[in-house]
Amino acid sequence: MTHIAERVACFDWEAIGQSLDARGWARLPALLSGGECDATAALYGPGDRFRSHVVMARHGFGKGEYRYFAYPLPDTVQTLREALYPRLVPIANRWHERLNLAPRFPSSLAAFLQRCREAGQARATPLLLRYGPGDFNCLHQDLYGEHVFPLQVAVLLSAPGVDFEGGEFAITEQRPRMQTRVQVVPLVKGDGVVFAVNSRPQLGTRGDYRVTLRHGVSEVRSGGRHTLGIIFHDAA
Predict the structure, then answer these.
(1) How many structural domains is the chain composed of?
(2) Domain span including residue 206
(3) pTM given for the model
């Protein structure tokens, strides 16, 4: 787990912040090793490590399935959440300041989760997603209650071109009075992507305005794809 925290610390967070400001997402190359990816993907399945199982087709979310972890989180997931949060807090607070949004976010994950619990948001939100041939994830936002941390992270646990074909991670961006922009994020096994949960600020002629973002996964043409999602706010 020390190696994961060291990797997070070694990223160029100034450049990541600039990418997030400009387009709403940034890559985190080799966030997990191949072995860490395989071990995390192997957790998928029934058991008390998960609190909920969602089959996407039943809810119109797409095709495929995912499971929300229960507390306590697996070590890899907990370490990622704890290491990433303080690096993202300055960006999150800057965005809220630019958009005149409250509240500001505390420097520690524990303090933020305590705020969530006090508002009735106490269910863990990190999750594992599994896709097979023909599966996809519709464009969406991961909003689970009053308190929403504006950034989240996804980690690709499978190898494109080896484990699966298709299944590209896509982000759409909607600016006022403009057509929707689509961005495909190039990821390889072990890469993370940090991206806006629902919106980001954009400087205009009259100051900052809000750009709305959604994310999803295109159809998997063959093979199997696993993804780890790290969401920092908990669910009601």
Answers:
(1) 1
(2) 2-230
(3) 0.96
